[in-house]
Amino acid sequence: MALSVGTSMGYRERSEIRDGMRIDWDMPIAMDDGLVLRCDLYRPIAEGKYPVVLTYGPYGKWLHFDDLYHDQWQRMCADHPDVPTGSTNKYQCWEVVDPEKWVPDGYVCIRVDSRGAGRSPGIIDIWSLREAQDLAQCVEWAGVQPWSNGKVGLNGISYYAENQWQTAALQPKHLAAICVWEGAADFYRDMAHHGGIFFVAVSCRTGRRHKSTLFRMDAAPADSRAG
After folding, report:
1. Residue-range domain boundaries for the chain
2. Which of 99, 118, 169, 188 could be joined to 60 by an S-S link, Cβ 3.0–4.6 Å?
3. Does an H or E element contain 24, and which?
């Protein structure tokens, strides 16, 4: 499934101090094919070199958790009150870390909108080599910034986690760690052919609309392998 995002949107590249952090909005990261991805940086106010926690995905870096999945947000806060405690929760997004809890401990948190999603232009191609290459290049970019100590860790759940496997296989030199949470490692068994039956669920974030496409067949295709 391919979705494109226009390049006419107005970017707001600016830096400000808010809620005990320096936040750099809509920062550009140029890819090797000339396309420019957009990211937000949350970092300590004090000058220094810090380790980086980076995520790259399609759910919109400006889209609040509660706006995307209201019921899930409410249940999480009720069942796990430690999550919202100690934070204004202004910067909570789906399946990524809360910078208000990481930045005070001396980390830089970077959220990159993946190619063709959110604030980044292009055509989305989920879990592809192109996405892994993009993420690897984001790691290398983050590793050489003046506020970085050269060590970049990847984090995130589900979609974010699955791309970590493929990016790590490319061995970007500034990648120091991955934290894979609920991330499928075997696309055939975990996603495409549950129990040998063809099943593909594709979920993409573009702007504020969430589009899901499901394809299901009652029997596995003729060339499928045993589950």
Report:
1. 4-185
2. 118
3. strand 21-30
Work out the average pLDDT over 61-85.
89
pLDDT of residue 206: 32
- Inter-CA distances, 133 with 169, 170, 214, Å: 10, 8, 26
Residue 210 has pLDDT above 70, yes or no: no
DSSP string spanning the chain? ---EE-S-SPP--EEEEETTEEEEEEEEEE-TTS-EEEEEEEE-SS-S-EEEEEEEESS-TTS-HHHH-HHHHHHHHHH-TTTTTTS--TT--TTS--HHHHGGGT-EEEEEEPTTSTT--EE--TTSHHHHHHHHHHHHHHHTSTTEEEEEEE--BTHHHHHHHHHHHT--TTEEEE--BS--S-HIIIIIEETTEEEEEEEEEETTEEEEEEEE-SS--TTPPP-
Fold of 4-185: Rossmann fold (3.40.50)
